[in-house]
Structure prediction request, 244 residues.
Amino acid sequence: MEKKTQIFGLRAVIEAINSGESIDKVFLQKGLRGELFNELEGLLNSNSINISYVPVEKLNRLTKNNHQGVVANISPIEFHDLDSLVLNTIESGETPLFLLLDQINDVRNFGAIIRTAECTGVHGIIIQKKGGAPVNGDTVKTSAGAVFRVPICKVDHIKDAMFHLQSCGIKVIAATEKTNNSIYDVSFKEPCAIIMGSEDRGISPSILKLVDDKAKLLLLGDIESLNVSVACGVFLYEAIRQRL
Prediction:
């Protein structure tokens, strides 16, 4: 069941953070100052919560209530612990299949990826706390509700998640054009995690250096890339084809 996705007011947001609410992003009024504001800003930074500094007009559009210079988006889902999810997947006897999303920032692409992940039996999606698309009401809509059915983990750094997966015997495969291997040259039969990059920059170079394998899609037309959600679907269904 979807829960409320917005709170406002300095004390309300501070209490939400301290009580462990899954806050996805906070909008702060530019130029706001004061003791409570400083306390809130410190909490946001220490908890690696996305912050966006905006004019008061933006906050007025987000809510008609007395926002006191702050509006927070609360995730409609509870995020999963990565360690527990990986362990439970391995113990289930199924061959693990995970998705790592490196800075996917369009909520429609994010929702479409979640929907395809649910349809292909992905065991979990791993995203970074900062920089990616929010998990909000739009995500619920564009995923056709699949966001409630696929475990999603939030981590401080994608690299740390990669190291953990690799230590558990799960290889990380990058979807990137920076390779000579096509998607049909790479094996997805064993435990693996597919990493997809952002819409404009692809996978970060520092992350590419750490993957176990790379694969690209064959593009026969003049356009040099596919939409990331479409590309993700091709990768996932190739993994399913190989595993059947």
About this structure: The longest strand covers residues 23-29. The first helix runs from residue 10 to 18. The mean pLDDT is 92.
